[in-house]
Amino acid sequence: xxxxxxxxxxIAGIDAPVAEAAHRLTMAGLEVEAIEPCGDDHVLEVNVxxxxxxxxxxxxxxxxxxxxxxxxxxLPPHDVLAHTGALDFNVDILDYDLCHRYAGxxxxxxxxxxxxxxxxxxxxxxxxxxxxxxxxxxxxVLLEFGHPLHAFDxxxxxxxxxxxxxxxxxxxxxxxxxxxxxxxxxxxxxxTLLILDAEDPIGIAGIMGGLHSEVDDTTEDIFIESAYxxxxxxxxxxxxxxxxxxxxxRFERGSDIKMLKKALDRAAYLVKEIVGGELYGKxxxxxxxxxxxxxxxxxxxxxxxxxxxxxxxxxxxxxxxxGFEIKxxxxxxxxxxxxxxxDVKRDYDVIEEVARMYGYDNIPAVxxxxxxxxxxxxxxxxxxxxxxxxxxxxxxxTGFTEAINLSFMSEADLDMLDIPxxxxxxxxxxxxxxxxxxEACMRTMILPSLIRNLKHNLAYGSRDLKIFESAKxxxxxxxxxxxxxEHAICALYYREKAxxxxxxxxxDFFVIKGIAESILSDLGAAGISFVRSTEPFLHxxxxxxxxxxxxxxGYIGALSPVVFDRLGIKSAKPSIIIMEFFxxxxxxxxxxxxxxRQLPKFPAIDRDVAIVLDSSFAAxxxxxxISGFGSELIEGISIFDxxxxxxxxxGKKSLAFSIRYxxxxxxxxxxxxxxxxxxxxxxxxxxxxxxxxx
Length: 694
Fold this sequence. Notes:
The chain is α+β, with helices and mostly antiparallel strands. 30% of the residues lie in helices and 27% in strands. It contains 20 helices and 30 strands. The strands form eight sheets. Strands 18-21-22-26-25-24-23 form a seven-stranded mixed β-sheet, sandwiched between helices. The chain starts with a strand and ends with a strand. The model is unreliable at 373-381 (pLDDT under 50).
């Protein structure tokens, strides 16, 4: 909004340099974007936020300056004397919900002509073209008081009657058209509020007057309208008609229902002083009274929220001059909000006003206390936070980079991964107004987001990628229930085969499996086992579900060749390994308490053995079988070879593993080991149905 500085000084009662006033206004929350010299004056370009319609006027901005400089606000003269007698004019409000107040004055015997040079200059400084004395006065008061007015030619108002009603109410079932001041004929929606005379519409309420009732060179008698229209109605009608005006801009943000009387009187005063004529009494229909908001604000809360320590008197002093009615009490003060401050609704809004007037630059900068990660205050939440943090830290230590994505996906992502219809991840929560079809629902799994990250990085030439994301997924529970929020951490490893001086022989699946085992070992998760995976998007021969306790806590595996083909990746034989942990399920699985013991003093003895088993036998089952053997001398087992081929029957495989024996109190003899090892091999053959490979 453009405001001449001299105009502001007159009303605010200040004499500060323009640059200083602009700076202090900006620091109080009304940004002055530019100061333009204009003759012997300056014009301020003030950026008014949408929640401050009171500052869309010279008086509104002057009030801010007056409060900042602790001066008295000088309202321009607006008291008038009028003839008392019958007006022979009627106003009917037919829709009280959309028109809360309607006032007007009749002025007779005027002569249309140009407005004074000083008024034309101020209008031009504010970007408004002068037209004639009556129209210029209504525009001048609009800028000054922030309240739109409209003048009708009395002889064009049929029946000396004004009606305020929607088009649908005034003309049920009929198409309504009106030619507005811009000479355009407009079809009016049924819910649009109109100003009508006894027969026809003569204006679109709060937006633009009608052409056939405008003031022109032949006008002698006028009716000046000043009203309050519901902001939602003006906003809806303005959008439907594609018509934006200075009046609609203010009405749709909320005008001052009490200021409209002063604005009407100010316009009448200027007409009397500039144009002349006979001023008659005022019509004021006020069916829906304004109810003042009352807010209690605790002194302690002001200091706590702002992080400062100021006195009670200083708090209330900050609010003086802003138009609030303040009543102090022992532990709090009560604020009654004026009609022009419809943005102040609760105590935090009042605290913001204290901060503005105290000065944001006077509030010391202090780093806030913050907790990184999830903080719920409950023991369960702390445990989940600790587990997620430990998994995240382990992934970062092993070279993974954390990704952050929006929590959206589409059901096409689930189709791409072959997620079956009865899987819980198909219970998606749809978004009512998605920005695009690819983000039409909340994520039920993190993997689709990481796949998009992968494709984006490949497009920019990346050929080695290790990323993970820690986030919540959302599983729907029906329309009447909130979705379940489950914390998960998903990692994606991508590497292309390349010629290197020192070739790596380890399969990428086992590299990532080693990372998963390390993470679980660091957590101390109890009863860990890897079982052939049932996830449909993983390679059936290179994947495993991770179990801890009695439940599945995650999975690991290479991406299925079928899914890989759908991605359209052109590289030859890359590795794409996926790993995911379900944090809530991992927490409920249980953890071993750390146990410390001395380093072994006596040597260990290793024995290798290979057993021919059914090809369907899971290598992970060996651990549970050996654990059931019940010998304290068995320290560990490691599998080092799986073979299928010549000399192995069809449907069988050779599983070779090494067993380590050690005693804590002595060196084991050869005889002890041979006997124990023979019994263990016999136990394994019996439990697995396999045969020792010669």
